[in-house]
Predict the structure of asparaginase.
Amino acid sequence: METESSKILLIYTGGTIGMMKDYETGVLKAFEFENIYHRIPELSHLDCLIDSVSFEKAIDSSDMNPKHWINIAETIEKNYDNYDGFVVLHGSDTMSYSASVLSFMLEGLSKPVIFTGSQLPIGDLRTDAKENLITSIQLAALKENGKPVIKEVGLYFEYKLYRGNRTTKINAENFQAFVSINYPTLAESGVHLKVMKENLLPEKPKAKLKVWKEFDQNVAIIKLFPGITEKILNGIFNISGLKAVVLETYGSGNAPTETWFLKSLEAAIEKGIHIVNVTQCSGGSVILGKYEASEYLRKIGVINGKDITTEAAIVKLMILLKKNISSNLFKIRFEENISGEI
Ligand code: ASP
């Protein structure tokens, strides 16, 4: 595998990776993106050509919303033919949502789009930003027989490349901030950069990039907990305009079997609200019907989220809701794998 002569576009959106400390207040603030080269002079030693573009205003990823996702996707779309790969610098807090949604938006993607960020600002002596950024660029630059090796949306953090739509942020402090429990790593960085080719999405022959840009944000996430009341649950299902819900259930997709609970879900589905069953466990899969506590959910038409993450499920809902499909087809489409998320 070679990296030479690859052209990479860095897309800087904000996050800790591009921040510096205001030493008077101790608060982290965004700095001009051009400073990234100043902070990481090693970038100019990499064997590839690197250009960069930056969000007009760098943001903390807590402020990410569909407009920003479209901004990232359009930047890739506009520059798609001129670059071999893309590295998106993004705050870690909502990086899994953005990596998931981009994996659905970039239909027909056949080049690498690698999300990365850091837990410590680039200027910090012990920063993890340098390794994350440099290796992400190297991964995006990898080619074999003149073609990119990675042809999907990945997330690189602390020596591991994951499939973006399989990740979850699990730690606010450790450098190892992300996990992908239900899918193995795509690449690992040690003495050698090892790509697990068998885990990568297969080549899509003659794929052409097409970017999806529509979202319906009338969605919600409900995390079940012992003691949840009928009033609260119905309060949510009665929100005007609500169209779909990710229901975070227990274990392999279990939920209370009390009549009021089941009636409330049934009424919501009858009203046309799509309910997706996703387990609140970090790993494993929903298996509807494994226990009585989930069999009824299957019968009333709850969508099986299988082993999808909540992050991928909520953004997949926002996109599918804009596809104008019947309720039955909606369930079928959601349960199908689009880009390796299930
Ligand atoms: N709050 C920051 C963000 O997500 C944290 C980070 O960059 O890691 O933008």
Remarks:
- The chain has nine helices and 20 strands.
- The chain has a mean pLDDT of 92.
